[in-house]
Amino acid sequence: MKRLNIYILILLIWSLLPFLWQLVTSFSTTEAILEPFSFTGNHWTLDNYSQLLTANPPFWQYLINSTIVGCSSTFITLVLAIPAAYSLSKSNTKTQSLFKIIFLATALFPYVLLFLALLELARYFDLGNNLFALALPYAGLSLPIAILLLLSAFNDLPKDIEEAAKIEGMNLVQLLRWILIPLIAPATASTALIIFIFSWNEYPIALTWISQSDKLTLPVAIARIAGSSVYSVPYGAYAAATVLGSIPLILLVLIFQKGIVSGLTQGAVKG
Amino acid sequence: MNIFYLLPALTLITITFGLPIIRYFWISFHASSLLTGLEYIPNYGSNWLRIIGDDRFWRDTIQTLRFTGVSVSIELIIAILIALLLNQKLRGRGVIRAISFLPWALPTAVMALGWRWIFNSPYGPIDQLLNLFGFASLNILSEPRLSWIGTVLADVWKTSPFISLILLAGLQTIPNDLYEAFILEGGTKRQAFFRITLPLLEPYILVSLLFRVAQAFGVFDLIQVMTGGGPAGSTESLAGYAYLNAMRFLDFGYSATIIVFSFIVLILVCLIGWITISNSKRILSS
Lengths: 271, 286
Fold this sequence. Notes:
The complex is a heterodimer. Chain A is mostly helical. Chain A is built from 13 helices and no strands. In chain A, helix 1 (2-26) packs across helix 13, helix 7 runs antiparallel to helix 10 (185-201) and helix 7 (131-156) runs parallel beside helix 13. The radius of gyration of chain A is 23 Å and the shape is globular. The two termini of chain A are 37 Å apart. Residues 267-271 of chain A have low confidence and may be disordered. The longest helix of chain B is centred in the C-terminal third of the chain and has 34 residues, at 252-285. Chain B has helices at 3-27, 46-52, 55-86, 93-105, 108-118, 125-132, 147-172, 176-184, 189-217, 221-226, 238-248, 252-285; strands at 30-31, 41-42.
């Protein structure tokens, strides 16, 4: 039992240390950042945070932008994926396994390589610098894995429920609205979380689609703070940005960790 | 099956995945750069001839394969250990699991900068501690022979939780009775791991390997932000080279050719991996 605790401690330190270092840096004065292990003089400050919040555009703008992109891409993905997964779950095994293979192959695809063609599409349809438009490629990229996860949730439902509902005279919309969607809510929640995290964190497409500084998403904005000068990265401000940008994700993971484990793995592996 | 429920999703997937891939093949047979005024002019495969003689492309291919092979192997081992640990009955298991998944949930681009700060010389904690105890600075990210190890370490930290997540679900499908019976028969815990856990986890391991190899092969954010491909191009990945050609040199024709070539290399790698695994299984079982 003692040894187990030591392993757990190592795991926690390993997982948290890089982030904790950011936390320490974010509250350090410039002098303290240059000499992190000498605790003489003025070590702690809130300047890095106030600098971020008074910058132009203020930092919370990026949080809002990322939230808009995250929520709209999650919404679009679910609206398209739930009916698709439902109709696949009603089809015969052959069709189902064909689509499963297609979706698995697309989900595996290193999407970074798509940036050039997606940028062309953005230019052609004039979709650049538009947060809602950015949600479209995110939804497209998330759809295969979302359909796979939801499909296995639909397949796990007992068949009788639906027949009972049909006898009650429910039509398909009612069936979905009152019976099926509530039943697959746990799988939907974990799928939504995975899409949200992907959209919140996505970098290469956001980097090429958005150039206006008040429309940047969080990862691009933070990378830009750090890239403002190659030789003297303002690490205090950058670290503060990391901390602020991570808080929503930390909360999400803490609240939904149980759902992530069961939801993510159920479908991904069976598929 | 009602095709109309499937159609909107399929359309969007085709636009984001299907069209680009076809488009890349088409562009790779055209010249499109500042010289052509960004018009697409057919150049009958000269992009393809250029790539075969492009030393930088082959160096990046080898670097990408090295990065993928080394980081995915380390990740798999660490992930198995983490998953075994998280599968134990622990107090506060929920919080411990959440914390161990955290690296996976944080933005790659952001934490890549965090790692760049950790490896910073001379102000980062690693070099500061080394100096404090009288050792010379390592300066990992400025040393062409070491820098890729720095990127591997950051990648291992970031993505081991992803694999352990999948393996953890796999572990939960193994009934406890199996272990109890095995121990009753006189087996040791170590034997139980190799005879029960590992074989039953195999499909989960394969799926996560497939995912990780494909993702690691397309590595971009991490390297772009940590080292920018440097020093001296020692960490540049194929995706980074394609990005550089498109966005910096504005040579879209060549960039698309690099991307198509990357697809081909990735498919070959997966095929070779697949054949090796099924062959070794046959040898082991015979």
